Amino acid sequence: MKTSAQGFTGLHMLVATSTFFAVVIAVNVTMAFYASSSWSGLVVENTYVASQEFNRKAAAMKAMAASGVAGDLSIRGHQIRYDIHDKSGAPAAVDDVVLNFKRPVGDHEDFHLTLRKTAEGRFEADHNLAEGDWIVEAISRNDGLVVMHEAKRIDTKELDR
User: Fold this and answer.
1) Which CATH number fits domain 69-158: 3.40.30.10, 2.60.40.10, 3.40.50.1980, 3.30.300.160?
2) Which residues cross the membrane (predicted)?
3) What share of the chain has pLDDT > 70, as a percent?
4) pTM for this predicted structure
5) What is the pLDDT of residues 25-54, one digit of tens each?
6) Nearest to 86 by CA among 121, 114, 117, 137
7) N- to C-terminal Cα distance for the chain?
8) Cα(36)–Cα(51) distance, rounded to whole angstroms?
9) Which of 78, 80, 111, 160 is the most buried (most CB within 10 A)?
10) Bridge-partner residues for 111, per DSSP?
């Protein structure tokens, strides 16, 4: 009776190498799929135009910061409230407030709300906000001119619901 102990053969090497590269390729394809489907990659429409506007926007933001006007966003259940005040704490003179809700990744759930003025410096809206992280951009205007433009990142798990 003849027994054969071949050990590690060329066929074993071929299977091991093929399996290794199959795993590497499968991981790369999976990562590429998730990367392309989860983020649009779009930050600005035209980078050249955005770079030309940077100094103008930076000067406007410095002027807003120096004015002392600040806003406070509060969300309780479906009630969204934005209070805006000057440096002394008195309500700021603002005609309208728009809130843009954006997801940090992807844009399929983004929306904007025009808040109704309920008192001087107080604006409210009713809207159910999906759970998770949001970037809330607040734009406050008086006579068509931007008084305050700010963005805050919020997590709905940290809000009083």
Assistant:
1) 2.60.40.10
2) 12-35
3) 92
4) 0.64
5) 999 999 999 887 776 666 777 888 888 888
6) 121
7) 79
8) 25
9) 80
10) 101
